[in-house]
Design brief:
This protein has 251 residues and is an alpha/beta fold. It contains 9 helices and 7 strands; from the N terminus they run E-H-E-H-E-H-E-H-E-H-H-E-H-H-H-E. It has a single domain, classed as Rossmann fold, CATH 3.40.50.720. Helix 1 packs parallel to helix 2.
Length: 251
């Protein structure tokens, strides 16, 4: 029960890694606030799972590309829970695969806004609450794309996730005097709706050839790492990124 009497906010939790993380942390005692955008069915399913576990929970529909909605999310979560012990910045996405010569300013800004700026803004608002209550933990979801440059058509996404990795280092160093630890997870190819939406079968086959472990990871495996990073078990870690990619990319 690593999260007994703890309050957690997880963005992008209506499916995949966010969903699995919410369920796992609730099983271990957490009260959970979570966000969703378009996947209302997934949000309802998660809400039902959390209610079965007897935890306090709240689902907040949020467009993470809209500043006012991100600020509202922070205010609603703090209003409901009072104190936020852990923030899991999981929301993000490729938005659209675009060859390098077709990238335009509008799409570039949209992808960077979703994957980087929304994370910064929410971390500021929730971080202020953590600071006032003696500290907390922030976990950012990066990607192996930020390590090796991403697949075909994922240039902007790879740049954004590379920024998340660097941002984690900066936040980890700057916020630790306030008792706030910041780390990130960089997943490899994970079996979630993300790839069903953005990765054609032929592209997926090409990517899988570069995974020595021979399979995609699971959302539940990633949730275990996120829970570790959000718990006191990782108390000496800050500014670090854990690479979980089946050997696809190693230092």
């Amino acid at each position: 029960m690593r999260f007994e009497n703890k309050n957690v906010l997880i963005t992008g939790a209506s499916s995949g890694i966010g969903f699995a993380s919410a369920v796992l942390m609730a099983k271990e005692g957490a009260n959970v606030a979570f966000t969703y955008c378009r996947n209302e069915d997934g949000a309802k399913n998660l809400q039902a799972e959390l209610e079965k576990l007897g935890r306090k929970s709240i689902g907040i529909k949020t467009d993470m590309t809209q500043d006012e909605e991100v600020v509202g999310l922070a205010e609603k979560t703090i209003g409901e829970f009072g104190r936020v012990d852990a923030l899991i910045n999981n929301a993000g996405g490729l938005v659209e695969r675009m060859p390098f010569f077709e990238i335009n300013r509008r799409k570039w800004d949209e992808i960077l806004n979703l994957n980087v700026w929304s994370l910064v803004l929410l971390s500021q608002k929730i971080g202020e609450n953590m600071k006032a209550h003696g500290g907390g933990v922030i976990v950012n979801n990066a990607s192996v794309a930020g390590r090796f440059g991403g697949g075909v058509g994922a240039c902007a996404y790879a740049v954004a996730k590379g920024a998340v990795i660097t941002l984690t280092k900066s936040m980890g160093r700057e916020l630790i005097p306030d008792g706030i630890r910041v780390n990130s997870l960089a997943p490899g190819i994970i079996d979630t709706p993300f790839h069903e939406q953005f990765t054609p079968p032929d592209v997926m086959q090409g990517l899988m050839k570069n995974v020595p472990i021979g399979r995609a990871g699971t959302a539940e495996e990633m949730a275990q790492i996120i829970a570790f990073l959000a718990s006191d078990e990782s108390s000496y870690l800050t500014g670090a990124t854990i690479d979980a990619n089946g050997g696809m990319w190693v230092v």
